[in-house]
């Protein structure tokens, strides 16, 4: 996924950070995920994720479930940058390359459809060398507008 041509203003970016921080910093599930927000725009996020050995299967590679959880979080966050509380309706994952414990990956989530009741988001995750690890797509149901 390419970076957007225009980023949001610093004021809008700060508001997005505050809004998302208020959601994620108070939720135990999100506190347990080793994610770092690298960039936020309206409809787009880039997040880093450290693959710990506790996230790996018996072969020492990241569990598909852990990668799916990261992608769901990433795509949900991209949806929330539009100012809505959402819930996942469906998620589709394509696992392309394995990643080992101790590695760092970067995920980019981009809203591709914003309807009245649903939002569709795609994401791609890359290893430190820029190789694609996983590609996902998810549909979210809009529950309400965030305050």
UniProtKB/TrEMBL annotation:
Transmembrane segments: none annotated. Coiled coil: none annotated. It holds the Pfam family 4HBT. CDD domains: PaaI_thioesterase. InterPro entries: ACOT13, HotDog_dom_sf, PAAI_dom, Thioestr_dom. One of its GO terms (molecular function) is hydrolase activity. Keywords: Hydrolase. Its EC number is 3.1.2.-. Residues 60-131 form the Thioesterase domain. It comes from the Bacteria. Belongs to the thioesterase PaaI family. This is PaaI family thioesterase. It comes from Megasphaera intestinihominis.
């Amino acid at each position: 996924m390419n970076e957007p041509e225009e980023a949001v203003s610093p004021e809008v970016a700060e508001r997005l950070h505050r809004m998302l921080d208020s959601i994620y910093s108070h939720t135990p599930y999100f506190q347990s995920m080793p994610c770092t927000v690298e960039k936020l725009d309206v409809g787009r996020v880039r997040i880093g994720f450290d693959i710990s050995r506790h996230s790996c299967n018996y072969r020492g590679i990241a569990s598909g479930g852990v990668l799916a959880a990261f992608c769901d979080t990433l795509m949900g966050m991209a949806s929330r940058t539009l100012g809505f509380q959402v819930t996942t309706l469906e998620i589709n994952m394509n696992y392309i390359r394995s990643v080992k414990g101790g590695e760092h990956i970067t995920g980019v989530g981009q809203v591709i459809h914003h309807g009245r009741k649903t939002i569709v988001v795609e994401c791609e995750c890359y290893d430190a060398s820029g190789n694609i690890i996983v590609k996902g797509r998810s549909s979210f149901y809009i529950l309400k507008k965030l305050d």
